[in-house]
Specification:
heterodimer, A: alpha+beta, six-stranded antiparallel beta sheet, B: seven-stranded mixed beta sheet, 16 helices
């Protein structure tokens, strides 16, 4: 449910760091809470993003929710397949359901994010 | 016998023609001067034609989902702009004839021509047949409306740079279109043209489309436009326009260049207050060229009234009609005023928007202005179409209801609906506000099931966290 190689954000996003770039997505918990996802409003390639600020929106049949960036940097790629197939965020949130790739401006920010274990502990603390 | 009062009305748009009929109903002799078709911009080049065309895209949107519904369609589905326009024209002609018939039954005289005031009691008419006439009246109502955009940056040629007038008479569907202005008209045309398959780019100076609407509704609309493939460029303006054969190139403030087949100018309507002899009658106009009136719709000159777009209040057809009724009622001794604080309005985008009263932002400012805390005193109730059985059944699941109320006074401050039939649905809310009903009273009234109207009831209940069809909220 929560792959160990990812870092997690308290707004339920994950990132996978690869050198100076990080791939962004939403967690299993987030996709499950949202229900059937029908649309993702993605950032534009080239847009600057700031840690903890909104980068896009995700709309499900139940609600609309902001997508936050766990890190600062610049959007270098977005997952254009989501335009026609937003449902892959439900079915494969850590794979085909990736949202964007961010070029990190401050790689140290990654250290402040949660590990899979910490995120799971965070989720169970939220339930109580 | 005392001769009936003679009222002369300059302009037969939704302000002028309604004023004419009401005046006749109240016993006046009425003359209307209009140089174009009865019904004005609203009926001929605005509200009605745009709805007639949008209806086709709405139908097309559904037909594209036919297979999901279990409806089999053989062959391809496509739009025929020539027939769309022909149908639109037929709708408009029918309604224009309807006004002419009403005029006949009320013995309203219609002079086809352009009027110019000579003084406070008369005007000269240059008739369409080339002759001239002078009209003398006991009172005059000016209802000349507003003019098409004519900005130096966007020289309208009707071909590459167009206004909504040409956009409603599409002979063919442009491959690409840049819409300047993301207000009501801009968003409506973005819905229409993106539906027809045009690649639409929308430029809006403010940070979001529909800048006068509730922010939540505006951002909902922005998402819906993006789903239709509309490219939104907000917080920027067009700085330069270059026309070339078969192409217009627009340079935006941020340096971006957009190349399109056509540009639609949806900003900058002016007031039709020039060339109608206002100075001869001594009638005052404001800085923007709007005719100044009091709340009885009378100008500074006794016996001369003005209504509709030309007075520059809310530039809406139904406001013009309301002002028209008020003007002639006052002329004929039935004192009345226009109340501007409760005007429902529809935005005929896909999906549609209905709104009445304050936005959430305005409600918070209003509460704050009297020293109260908006966080505690402005309460919001929401409900989504997707949770309504009727919406699921018909497949119109995109949309939401939003009620804004004052927690202290229990007044409903505003209601905003986006989704199918929103502009119709908002009238229950407007009536509730008109009669001073509280959200609790709206919730208490039994709403028929299954209907979209249940959404307003649920939203009213949600103000207290009591909507039945909403998951329990975390406390």
């Amino acid at each position: 449910m929560y792959p160990k190689d990812l870092k997690y954000h308290n707004e339920h996003e994950w990132i996978r760091v690869d050198g100076k770039q990080a791939t962004l997505g939403i967690s299993h918990f987030a996709q499950d809470a949202l229900g059937d996802i029908v649309f993702l409003d993605l950032p534009k390639v080239g847009a600057a993003v700031t840690a903890n600020q909104q980068v896009g929106e995700v709309e499900s049949t139940k609600t609309t929710s902001s997508i936050y960036s766990p890190v600062s940097g610049k959007i270098v790629r977005i997952n254009t397949d989501l335009k026609d197939h937003p449902e892959v965020v439900n079915s494969d949130p850590y794979g085909k359901g990736w949202i964007a790739v961010i070029e990190l401006s401050d790689p140290k920010q990654v250290d402040g994010l949660m590990t899979a274990g910490q995120y799971e502990a965070f989720l169970s603390s939220q339930k109580k | 016998m005392i001769a009936p009062k003679h009222i002369a009305i300059l302009g037969a748009g939704p302000g002028g023609y309604v004023a004419a009929i009401r005046a006749a109903q109240l016993g006046a002799r009425v003359t209307v001067v209009e140089n174009q078709a009865l019904g004005g911009v609203c009926l001929n080049w605005g509200c009605i034609p745009s709805k007639a065309l949008l209806a086709v895209v709405e139908l097309g949107d559904k037909v594209k989902k036919a297979a999901d519904y279990g409806l089999t369609i053989e062959g391809s589905v496509g739009y025929d702009p020539v027939r769309m326009v022909a149908r639109k024209n037929k709708v408009v002609e029918g309604l224009v004839k309807g006004i002419a018939t009403l005029f006949k039954t009320w013995n309203i005289e219609h002079i086809e021509g352009t009027g110019e005031l000579l003084d406070a009691k008369s005007f000269r008419v240059a008739k369409r047949d080339g002759t001239e006439a002078t009209v003398q009246a006991d009172a005059i109502v000016i209802a000349t409306g507003s003019s098409w955009p004519n900005l130096p940056l966007f020289p309208v040629d009707g071909k590459q740079i167009i206004t909504s007038k040409e956009a409603l008479d599409l002979g063919s569907v442009p491959k690409s279109l840049l819409i300047v202005g993301g207000g009501v008209e801009g968003c409506e045309f973005a819905s229409l043209y993106s539906g027809l398959g045009t690649k639409v780019t929308l430029v809006e100076m403010m940070v979001s489309v529909l800048p006068l609407e509730d922010e939540e509704i505006a951002s909902f609309m922005a998402r819906e436009l993006k789903k239709r493939g509309v490219e939104l460029c907000t917080g920027t303006t067009v700085e330069k326009v270059e026309r070339q054969p078969g192409l217009v190139r627009a340079t935006l403030k941020d340096g971006a260049v957009v190349e399109v087949q056509q540009i639609l100018v949806s900003i900058g309507r002016g007031f039709n207050s020039k060339g109608i002899g206002l100075e001869k009658a001594g009638i005052q106009v404001g800085k923007r060229g709007e005719i100044l009136v009091n709340d009885r719709m009378e100008t500074n000159v006794r016996g001369v009234y003005a209504i509709g777009d030309v007075v520059g209040k809310a530039m809406l057809a139904h406001v013009a009609s309301a002002q028209g009724k008020v003007a002639v009622q006052n002329i004929l001794g039935h004192a009345s005023k226009v109340s501007y604080n409760l005007i429902p309005a529809g935005i005929f985008t896909l999906p549609e928007i209905g709104r009445v009263g304050l936005t959430e932002q305005q409600a918070c400012e209003k509460v704050q202005a009297v020293g109260r805390n908006p966080d505690t005193d402005v309460k919001i109730g929401r409900f989504r179409y997707a949770a309504l059985g009727k919406a699921q059944g018909s497949g119109d699941v995109t949309g939401m209801f939003k009620i804004i109320a004052d927690a202290k006074t229990q007044n409903i401050l505003g209601v905003h609906i986006i989704g199918s039939h929103a502009a119709d649905l908002v009238h229950e809310a407007a009536m509730a506000m008109h009669l001073g009903a509280t959200p609790a009273q709206v919730a208490e009234m039994i709403h028929a099931h299954p209907t979209l109207s249940e959404g307003l009831m649920e939203a009213a209940e949600d103000i207290e966290g009591m909507a039945i069809h909403l998951a329990r909220k975390k406390s």
